[in-house]
Design goal:
The chain has 11 helices and 9 strands. By secondary structure, the chain is α/β, with parallel strands linked by helices. The protein folds into 2 domains: 139 residues, Aspartate/ornithine carbamoyltransferase (Rossmann fold); 148 residues, 3-Layer(aba) Sandwich (Rossmann fold). The chain has a 5-stranded parallel beta sheet with strand order 7-6-5-8-9. It has a 4-stranded parallel beta sheet with strand order 2-1-3-4, sandwiched between helices.
């Protein structure tokens, strides 16, 4: 059966735990210069139908580290610009003998459709306001490195939850791994059916941050918004910007995170973004290593294969 990484909601806690464990181990081996298994016979198509810097580069770096060949694809200059359907594009790439697809698309569910027709692993690099599983895995690894665990932590997700695939993937992952999730923001930027997401709602920043172990800020995704959801950016910042001062409401050792791109002076002030509590650059780096784990995992490998690799290396 083909493995995909389409979303966190469909994964069980054991699979999430294995991906995080693999990501941490790949990081240690890369940084220490130790050997790890590679996948040099596989070719991955990078299908980015939305602009991206962090996600695309992280997937490309992960693929190169683990030995994968990469083929880049965009809608501009492709058959899709001539009217070809997504289904037919996926079928074309399947029979051009690509082994896996990494796909970012503005429509929720597009990677799931691709998985129906491609025949090999599909990794979701972000679909609409639905999910962004690799981002959540990287965020979780970052928290574990600093806190040692996810279980029992209080994580406040602050900002534009309505339009954030990052918020949804993080909420599912954190709740599955035993953390308490809080969604903090104005009613207009929270989904209308919050009962479908695992977390409690706070409309007031002070109560949302109260004794939180992690504060994860989200950018205002103005490209996905209808007019009038916020009265003004300045008003939003006045009520919901996380600052060095209001972090005093959180736990003394609270961590500050942001998936990027960061709008300084809106979601975070400079002191909070650049202070000792900030893990923003750590999130970026760890995104590479969990994507290495994701590639390894979707091609049918796991922790036991890593152990077998080490035994074979020891005998060589």
């Amino acid at each position: 059966m083909t493995r995909h990484l389409l979303g966190i909601r469909s994964l069980d806690a054991d699979s999430i735990g294995e991906l995080l464990r693999l990501g941490g181990e790949f990081k240690r081996r890369v940084l220490d210069g130790r050997p790890f298994p590679a996948l040099p016979t596989k070719t991955v198509g990078m299908l980015f139908f939305e602009d991206s810097t962090r996600t695309r580069v992280a997937f490309e770096q992960a693929a190169k580290y683990i030995g994968l060949n990469i083929v880049n694809f965009t809608t501009r200059g492709s058959s899709m610009s001539k009217g070809e359907s997504l289904k037919d594009t996926i079928l074309t790439l399947r029979y051009e003998r690509l082994n896996a697809l990494v796909m970012r698309h503005r429509q929720s569910g597009a990677p799931r459709l691709a998985a129906r027709f491609f025949g090999g692993p599909v990794l979701n690099a972000g679909d609409g306001a639905h999910e962004h599983p690799a981002q959540a895995l990287g965020d979780a690894l970052t928290i574990i490195e600093r806190k040692g665990r996810l279980e029992g932590l209080v994580v406040a997700i602050v900002g534009d939850v309505q339009h954030s695939r990052v918020a949804r993937s993080n909420a599912w992952l954190l709740s599955k791994m035993g953390a308490e999730v809080r969604f903090v923001g104005p009613k207009t930027l929270l989904p209308s059916h919050m009962a479908l997401l695992p977390g409690r709602v706070h409309y007031d920043l002070a109560s949302g941050l109260d004794n939180a172990d992690v504060v994860m800020c989200l950018r205002l995704q103005k490209e996905r918004m209808f007019d009038g959801l916020v009265s003004s950016v300045a008003e939003y910042a006045r009520l919901y910007q996380v600052t060095q001062q209001n972090l005093e409401w959180a736990a003394p050792d609270c961590l500050v995170m942001h998936p990027g791109p960061l709008n300084r002076g809106v979601e975070l002030d400079d002191e909070a973004a650049d202070g000792d509590r900030s893990l923003i650059t750590n999130q970026i780096e760890n995104g590479i290593f969990v994507r290495m784990a994701a590639f390894y995992w979707v091609f049918g490998h796991g922790w036991h294969d890593l152990e077998r690799f080490d035994r074979e290396e020891a005998r060589a």
